[in-house]
Amino acid sequence: MSKITISAVVAFLLILAVVPFSRAALNAHYYDQTCPQAESIIFQTIRNASIYDPKVPARLLRMFFHDCFIRGCDASLLLDSTPGNKAEKDGPPNVSVRSFYVIDDAKTKLEKACPRTVSCSDVLAIAARDVVAMSRGPWWHVLKGRKDGRVSKANETINLPSPFSNTTTLIQSFAKRGLNVKDLVTLSGGHTLGFSHCSSFSARLQNSTDTSINSEFAMSLRKKCPLHNKDRNAGEFLDSTSAKFDNDYYKRITMGKGVFGSDQALYGDDRTKSIVDSYAKDEKRFFTEFAASMVKLGNVGVIEDGEIRVKCSIVN
């Protein structure tokens, strides 16, 4: 993600909701007959938006993760709050999620080309693949046929993985979504695109017992995020090639330069360390595994009895 604001979230996941791995039948060719131009419309929309705003790829990839981890991949994150309900996008971990307008723009064009055919959840899944590929990462066939959910609750966003979490908590969170240890390490590589505000990692800099962080790196972060920082835009890129999807994220973790405590923790745990090492040494392997894990993530909580929203921000 080229530039993305990642706000502070609760330090511990107090509630871990089970999001079932879907048995719904998805198909890479789902729209071949009903809307053959769907993927082209989505790609062109995202490419144009990314040229105008380089932060778009990072934001859309993060949007897909945050949607799928709450209620599954049902586009519930895209729904606006209503007078009687505060929606996911207004939950604390999501207040910094941006670029919803890009998905809305793609959906508007799809409604003109193929009315009531392409779900918002499929638009988001395709968009996540496209932003990775456009950032020189892997490409994969997106399985399609998701339906959009009708429920979105801000208080459920406490179940999102936290940048303060230890590896055990992360493993448990991913397992409840049908994702294993390898998926955890692989999907964490999405941080190769991204930017974080100080609030998501500054606590590490004041913790003298945290020996996992490289001392020179910690010093550079302290300069950007002083103890009484007043600059809301201050922060750090999550790797040194923030606009390019590559394996630099893993290389930096092996050097003690993971920005988030949750990232660096992957290298301090025997269950995940060897996977980090393998990706740091072999970018091709990381790309192959990332594509596979993204397909797997896209199957989480897919619903069969939802709807095809005409507008992604409101239910029909």
Fourth-level CATH superfamily of the largest domain: Peroxidase, domain 2
The major pleated sheet works out as: 2 strands, antiparallel
Which overall shape is indicated by the principal axes computed on the Cα atoms?
Answer: globular
Number of strands: 2
Tell me which CATH architecture of the largest domain applies here: Orthogonal Bundle
Give the quaternary arrangement of the chains: single chain
Distance between the first and last residues' Cα: 32 Å
CATH topology of the largest domain: Peroxidase, domain 2
Task: Give the low-pLDDT segments.
Answer: 1-17
Report the helical percentage. Answer: 25-40%
Please explain how this structure is put together.
The model is unreliable at 1-17 (pLDDT under 50). 39% of the residues lie in helices and 2% in strands. The protein has 316 residues and is mostly helical. It folds into two domains: 38-160, Peroxidase, domain 1 (Orthogonal Bundle); 167-293, Orthogonal Bundle (Peroxidase, domain 2).
